[in-house]
Amino acid sequence: MKKRTLSFLFILTSFYSFAFEGMWIPSVLNAAFDDMKANGLKLSKEEIYSINNTSLKDGIVIFGGGCTGEMVSNEGLLFTNHHCGFDNIQYHSSIEHDYLKNGFWAMNRKEELACPGLTATFVIEMRDVTDEVLKGMIGVDEKDRPTKMRDLFNTISNKAKDENKCDGFVRGFNYNTQFFLVLTKTYTDVRLVGAPPSCIGKFGGDTDNWVWPRHTGDFSVFRIYANDKNEPAEYSATNKPFKPAHHFPISLKGVKEGDFTMVYGFPGRTEHLLTSAGVAYNHEQLAPMRIDFREKNLEVINAAMKSSDVLRIKYAAKQSSVANAYKKWQGQELGLNKFNAIQLKKDEEASWLEIAQKEKKEAEYSNLLTSINQLYKDYYAVNIASAAYAEFVFNGPEVFQLYQDFHEIADDEAKLKKGNLWEAKMKEFLETAKAFYKDYDLETDKKRFLAMAPMFEQFTKGAVHFEDVKLSREAAANRWFKGSMIADSAAFLGMIRSFSKDTAISMSSVSKKYAKRLGAEYLYVQALALNDYYKKTLVPSKKEFTTKHDLLMEQYVFLLEELRGKKEKWCDANSTLRLTYGKVEGSAPVDGMAYTPFTTGQGILDKNSTGNPDFEINDRLKMLLQNKEFGSYGVNGTLPVCFTGSNHTTGGNSGSPALNGNGEWIGINFDRTWESTMSDLYFNSEICRNVMADARYVLWVIDIYAGAGHLLKEMTIRR
Ligand code: ASP
Fold this sequence. Notes:
The chain is an alpha+beta fold and 719 residues long.
């Protein structure tokens, strides 16, 4: 190996002068493992991750689309966050059964609620296939690379899937500089067992989201069911509780400041390798634009939710998902500003350049960096318009997406009919449309449209324009929405029912008439125009950017590794299984202010007495806290509620088990502190802290608050 210079050492320490930065791939824990041991881990590598023996990984799942869940009994009981189970809690809620407000507890297995579409996915194996992929890519022409790589991924994963009789995929890490085959098994019968009321599970609401000190019991309880061979099966009353290979013992012994902790789960996305231009684009362009969109969106949703209980229930899940990132980006902006993250990146780049000069790679380094940074300029318009499209069509007024989804099938009518798939597809869509109407309010949707459309038009630079030459925008929107088929759920659903033959009466002539009416409708025509703009303009250009960007980044990361003399220390989060570790610790995020790492039940009462509606609690919770009815969960007259640690986490880690050095469950990860919201782009070990609900609070809520102590009997509890 070449002799390293002093400045190289400086770079290593300045890049990695972190205590616990990193999201480690559990199948290749190398240097991190020694550090974990030194900090208090008592387990072997094999106990954490193994393909031959039972290990901790066998108790962890990807919960739904993008959260983590963990097994806590050998009868399929699973913990995840309240905010991860929220869609399903909301799905089952109504004015009569307001589970959002009052909570839900199945007092026996029969009362557990099926959750259509909800899945839990276990990882069977994560295998490093870097050499195989890189070998397969030798000599491949630049323009053929994406296709060739996709083919290679398929060949490798298909072979492994056949051999192991399971699902799987190959994913690139750190801009395709490493590759892993991930083999998985997905269970599709997952039922809701328990959820605390929002005044516990969402205590603090938007006021406290991303904030410490925190007092949220952010957990919910589900159960996985399987067939009589313990294998995945669609929902059936005859399915049996799933028996996991591992479930986490729960430690009620409590945690102290400085104790070792780890968080094992599926972090979604970090971007710690972005260049200065990448950070600048995110920080100066993308985030401000998204924040503005969401502010307008939320003004409408929040007002609607305040106006009636029906709308509060309908919009609860949508509000949460829009509001969550809205607030996070604001915190991230403050953090990146405060630390001048763009300048930090530029300084890093200057240090790399110095090393590159010494290694005679200066031209290569500068050319790569210049090309990457130039790309952000060249593709600015398309990148920002694509993000605006996502805010408007995917997170804004819902009419367009429903119409687009319908059109996607209708457009394929001839082909689908030929393949005898038309009715089945329409049946599937009927379910989508029914779910849509369950939580839809036309007036609110129109207001979201009016609030967001002008900004969307502005970011598309004239490519999109909603107009009625004779009427004001508001008057026109009234007409567009009121006269639309969306407004007439009976007609719309009736049309789809007839297409899917879901009715005894043949309605084909009626449905044809409706289809004609739909085709002539302003909002429908606009939905198709938007779709066209997205598919024909935005998607191809965005793809072009991503392909060029990722290819340059691949070369860039390889070059950094060469300059450093070894591989990047950790790989950005990409929704694969990772282990992060740290300690129970607070932080001093602001001059003159320090966070201690623990909160207690008293904080709930204190916040409640401020009168802020986000801190409202019900009588039962208040009474139990005031009377200090803590059962065996209290400590010296207090009830532990949440704690912070220096584990490096991100979205997707929501619901991940927080574990001690023995691999026992000490709580559930659910958030980060305000000053940590920047950590997807810039992790600062002095400041960044994850937030976990304490095991004692979770079990107190189940046992004492909810009286669902029968669930505890299934768990392995260590006192
Ligand atoms: N609260 C987060 C989430 O919404 C978890 C995190 O990002 O730390 O996913």
